[in-house]
Here is the input.
Amino acid sequence: MNTNELMSMVESLPIDIKTQLIEKLLSSLNPAQKEIDALWAAEAEKRVAEMGEGKVQAIPGDEVFKEIRERLGK
Here is the structure.
């Protein structure tokens, strides 16, 4: 089977099968790193909790980008 035949077959698949195929292909290109993903999830949860407890305060995005531009002299 050549590439064109394979592509024709894929195009004729139902949308739910195409979606599964896309997810499988994407995960094969960028395999999940469960340990790292778990660490990032824990960090995000910690930060949300700190904000909820008033331990830290969010800075609006435009302020952050303004400061970055000033630091970079742009």
In short: The CA atoms of residues 68 and 74 lie 9 Å apart.
